[in-house]
């Protein structure tokens, strides 16, 4: 059997690690870049907490800087860290290995995707160095204020932000084409769709959503660039700015909001669905138990993906709309709770009477379930128009979305990194440091965001630079804010433990062997670990079962790999498996 | 055997699916702008552009490019048909640029009226996608010169061109034929 890839394996340093077309290298490039830019966003969040916790103590954080920190923190975290890391990092690394392919279907396009992503990051970081600094329009970039003088970074900052977003979307589309095509066309023999690990399902559906949702952001970015640079009035109404009537007239800021949130809400699930998938696989593997209700889990992912396209206007209740629209969007929003709750129940039922190993990845997975439930529950408050109105501009919303799409996905990412690190490097990450990292991050996240719910109900407005002279905010709120800031600084500092662990273990970690977690799914069944170029040696693997055959009665080992031909166990689809 | 089908370059089926996914993404992209067009056209300052005769000729060149590629894909004098397709596509792009010039000299500036802005935006976006298609066409020509088999590549190229033709016809109808009020009804009102 010819094995052409092996002869073409790149040999020089440059083709191997820099201009690489190997999905594994591209995944690592994506991951490292995303983590680097995420660190910037982490520092920005700490700076803004310094201002809120200890107002006026740090003179260099003036109001303009504060808004720039807020904006860049939000945009970097959502797009350049979470989206890039889940799809570009995990998607790239895991899809070919989990479906049994030698690489992505279009490797050159895949390489191009990374370099475009890097370019987007560089352009975005460049905005810190232009006159006026980065944009401070808030991560939603609402016009008209986003491009008018008076908003920090309304010159070069906003232009670079919009250009960077457009480049990112091109990069994400290139990657997305690959992920979808690879999952649908390059699966190995026996790997049916209903034998895919839920990680692949989550990434697949998230990718399809990204492909369909990002164009809306692209369009709004390009149209806003027209408004800014060419003086068109797509979004810009007639406006008097700084005492001067501008040439704009008739544009619709609400139109921008619709376009933005038509992207923005699916975006929440673009980062949530891969997290769902990863957490499902971690829980099943580390509880040594098959995932409960596999088919239901797949359908829940698909249904959430579809529903998330018809809920966007719940971000716009306070912008005003026909009450029937509000009714419609509140209903669709609350309906999402059903498939989501199914997933949570299935995770719990997978854990139920499982042989739970509290490894670091498992801790993060369970932590995810906890934070996601908390964040999801507050979503029920905010999905309702009548309760959203008073809460919308308060810290309650900050607490909600940070729990549900900040902390939760990042916990899933950490869990995933600790879990697949031995696959990537052949070494284990340090367990003690990992547990320290988990507990500080997990408990610290609650310390940060739980009190914010109270501040929100108290009516403390979000986005404000300072809270002087608001009679309804009691002094105790300030103490709580100081506490939150201290917690945020501690959690921020402890991420260095993770980085240290990540870097050090690559060279000094304990050798992991080929399958340290005793995982059944295909990516752990490669002939070499870490896998070589082409992944599978001379012959592609053949798959005979689903990836969740753990603790199968009668089997010798406590798991049956997907490549096992044993008559025991088998797919979720086979009812009444007879056990000898 | 799977090993053979997974060897590079990507199998026909994968390339076909990849193109379909790309077409879906581009469709959504244009539909988003058309939706925005429908919403924005419901304002008092909206003044529709006159259709230039040149745009009709441009439509014809794009149609000819599509036909030539279809001919190339079905093996009729492939080399000549391919070259002709490239030529027609270039003619289309040049024609569009001239149309921009004509619009500008007639006083329809990009910021003059939202209808003008949408005209430049939509034609510009479409032009960029034609340009992308020309790059694919250029790569195809290079591979043909190297003596590689370009049967499936030509077929994909032809499909993409038919799609671009459809998009252009849709844009032309939206910009010049369908009354804004009808479009607003189709798109669900603003």
TrEMBL record, chain A:
EC class of the enzyme, as a word: translocase
Organism: Jeongeupia naejangsanensis
InterPro entries the record matches: Cyt_c_oxase-like_su1_dom (IPR023616), Cyt_c_oxase-like_su1_sf (IPR036927), Cyt_C_Oxase_1 (IPR000883), Cyt_c_Oxase_su1_BS (IPR023615), Cyt_c_oxidase_su1_bac (IPR014241)
Renumbered residue ranges of the record's region Disordered: 511-538, 557-580
Membrane-spanning parts: 27-48, 69-95, 115-137, 158-180, 200-222, 268-284, 296-318, 324-348, 360-383, 395-418, 438-460, 480-502
Superkingdom per UniProt: Bacteria
Biased composition (Basic and acidic residues): 571-580
This protein's name: Cytochrome c oxidase subunit 1
Reactions mediated catalytically: 4 Fe(II)-[cytochrome c] + O2 + 8 H(+)(in) = 4 Fe(III)-[cytochrome c] + 2 H2O + 4 H(+)(out)
Pathway the protein acts in: Energy metabolism; oxidative phosphorylation
Protein's membrane topology: Multi-pass membrane protein
Record family assignment: Belongs to the heme-copper respiratory oxidase family.
Entry's EC annotation: 7.1.1.9
Domain spans labelled Cytochrome oxidase subunit I profile: 13-544
Localization per Swiss-Prot or TrEMBL: Cell membrane; Membrane
Keyword terms, alphabetized: Cell membrane, Copper, Electron transport, Heme, Iron, Membrane, Metal-binding, Respiratory chain, Translocase, Transmembrane, Transmembrane helix, Transport
Parts forming coiled coils: none
NCBIfam families to which the protein is assigned, alphabetical: CtaD_CoxA
Role of this protein: Cytochrome c oxidase is the component of the respiratory chain that catalyzes the reduction of oxygen to water. Subunits 1-3 form the functional core of the enzyme complex. CO I is the catalytic subunit of the enzyme. Electrons originating in cytochrome c are transferred via the copper A center of subunit 2 and heme A of subunit 1 to the bimetallic center formed by heme A3 and copper B.
Polar residues composition-biased segments: 511-527
UniProtKB/TrEMBL annotation, chain B:
Membrane topology label: Multi-pass membrane protein
Primary location recorded for the protein, binned into one broad class: membrane
Keyword Membrane annotated: yes
Pfam families given in the database record: COX3 (PF00510)
Keyword presence, Transmembrane helix: yes
Keywords linked to the UniProt accession: Membrane, Transmembrane, Transmembrane helix
PROSITE patterns assigned: COX3
InterPro entries associated with the record: Cyt_c/ubiquinol_Oxase_su3, Cyt_c_oxidase-like_su3, Cyt_c_oxidase_su3-like_sf, Cyt_c_oxidase_su3_a-hlx
Residue ranges occupied by any Heme-copper oxidase subunit III family profile domain in the UniProt entry: 16-180
Positions of transmembrane segments: 17-39, 51-73, 80-98, 118-140, 160-178
Subcellular location: Cell membrane; Membrane
PANTHER family: CYTOCHROME C OXIDASE (PTHR11403:SF10), CYTOCHROME C OXIDASE SUBUNIT III (PTHR11403)
Family under the similarity heading: Belongs to the cytochrome c oxidase subunit 3 family.
Name of this chain's protein: Cytochrome c oxidase subunit 3
Organism: Jeongeupia naejangsanensis
């Amino acid at each position: 059997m010819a094995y052409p890839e092996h002869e073409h394996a790149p040999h020089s340093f440059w083709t191997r690690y820099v201009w690489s077309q190997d999905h594994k290298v591209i995944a690592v490039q994506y991951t490292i870049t995303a983590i680097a830019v995420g660190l910037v966003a982490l520092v920005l969040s700490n700076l803004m907490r310094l201002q809120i916790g200890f107002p006026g103590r740090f003179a260099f954080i003036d109001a303009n800087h504060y808004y720039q920190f807020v904006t860049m923190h939000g945009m970097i975290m959502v797009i350049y860290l979470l989206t890039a890391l889940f799809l570009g990092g995990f998607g790239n690394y895991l899809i070919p290995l989990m479906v049994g392919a030698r690489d992505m279907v279009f490797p050159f396009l895949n390489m191009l995707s990374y370099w475009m992503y890097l370019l987007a990051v560089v352009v975005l970081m460049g905005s810190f160095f232009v006159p006026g600094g980065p944009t401070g329009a808030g991560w939603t970039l609402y016009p008209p204020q986003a491009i008018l003088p008076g908003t920090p970074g309304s010159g070069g900052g906003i232009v670079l932000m919009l250009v960077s977003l457009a480049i990112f979307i091109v990069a994400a589309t290139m990657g997305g084409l690959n992920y979808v095509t690879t999952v649908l066309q390059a699966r190995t023999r026996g790997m049916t769709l209903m034998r895919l690990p839920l990680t692949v399902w989550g990434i697949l559906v998230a990718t399809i959503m990204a492909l369909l949702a990002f164009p809306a952001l692209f369009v709004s970015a390009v149209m806003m660039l027209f408004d800014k640079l060419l003086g068109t009035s797509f979004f810009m109404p007639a406006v008097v700015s700084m005492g001067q009537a501008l040439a704009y007239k008739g544009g619709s800021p609400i139109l921008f909001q619709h376009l933005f949130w038509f992207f923005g809400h699916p975006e929440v699930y673009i980062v949530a669905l891969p997290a769902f998938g990863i957490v499902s696989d971690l829980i099943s593997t580390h509880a040594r138990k098959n995932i409960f209700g596999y088919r239901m889990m797949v359908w829940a992912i698909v249904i959430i993906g579809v529903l998330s396209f018809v809920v966007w206007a719940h971000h716009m209740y306070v912008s005003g709309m026909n009450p029937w629209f509000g009714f419609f969007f509140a209903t669709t929003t609350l309906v999402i709770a059903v498939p989501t709750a199914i997933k949570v129940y299935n995770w719990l039922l997978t854990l139920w009477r499982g042989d739970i190993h509290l490894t670091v990845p498992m801790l993060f997975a369970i932590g995810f379930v906890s934070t996601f439930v908390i964040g999801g529950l507050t979503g029920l408050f905010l999905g309702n128009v009548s309760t959203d109105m008073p809460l919308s501009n308060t810290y309650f919303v900050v607490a909600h979305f940070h729990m549900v799409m900040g902390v939760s996905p990042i916990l899933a990412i950490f869990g995933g990194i600790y879990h697949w690190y031995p696959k990537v490097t052949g070494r284990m990450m340090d367990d003690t440091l990992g547990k320290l990292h988990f507990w500080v991050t997990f408990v610290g996240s609650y310390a940060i965001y739980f009190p914010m719910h109270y501040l929100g109900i108290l009516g403390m407005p979000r986005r404000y630079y300072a809270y002087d002279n608001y009679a309804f905010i009691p002094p105790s709120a300030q103490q709580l804010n100081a506490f939150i800031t201290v917690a945020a600084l501690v959690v921020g500092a402890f991420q260095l433990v993770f980085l240290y662990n990540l870097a050090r273990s690559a060279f000094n970690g304990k050798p992991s062997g080929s399958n340290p977690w005793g995982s059944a799914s295909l990516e752990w069944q490669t002939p070499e670990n870490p896998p070589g170029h082409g992944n599978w040696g001379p012959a592609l693997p053949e798959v005979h079962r689903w990836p969740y055959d753990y603790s199968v009665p009668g089997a010798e080992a406590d798991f049956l790999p997907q490549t096992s031909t044993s008559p025991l166990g088998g797919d979720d689809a086979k009812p009444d498996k007879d056990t000898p | 055997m799977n090993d053979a089908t997974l060897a590079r370059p990507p199998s026909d089926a994968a390339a076909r699916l990849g193109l379909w996914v790309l077409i879906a993404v581009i469709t959504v992209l244009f539909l988003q702008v058309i939706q925005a067009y429908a919403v924005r056209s419901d304002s008092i300052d909206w003044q529709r552009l006159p259709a230039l005769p040149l745009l009709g000729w441009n439509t014809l060149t794009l149609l000819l490019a599509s036909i030539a590629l279809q001919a190339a894909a079905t093996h009729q004098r492939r080399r000549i048909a391919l070259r002709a397709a490239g030529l027609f596509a270039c003619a289309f792009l040049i024609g569009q640029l001239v149309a921009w010039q004509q619009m500008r000299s007639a006083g329809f500036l990009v910021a003059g009226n939202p209808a003008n802005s949408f005209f430049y935006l939509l034609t510009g976006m479409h032009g960029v996608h034609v340009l992308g298609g020309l790059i694919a066409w250029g790569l195809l020509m290079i591979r043909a010169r190297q003596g590689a088999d370009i049967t499936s590549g030509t077929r994909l190229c032809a499909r993409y061109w038919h799609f671009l033709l459809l998009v252009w016809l849709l844009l032309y109808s939206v910009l010049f034929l369908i009354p804004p009020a009808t479009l607003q009804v189709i798109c669900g009102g603003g």
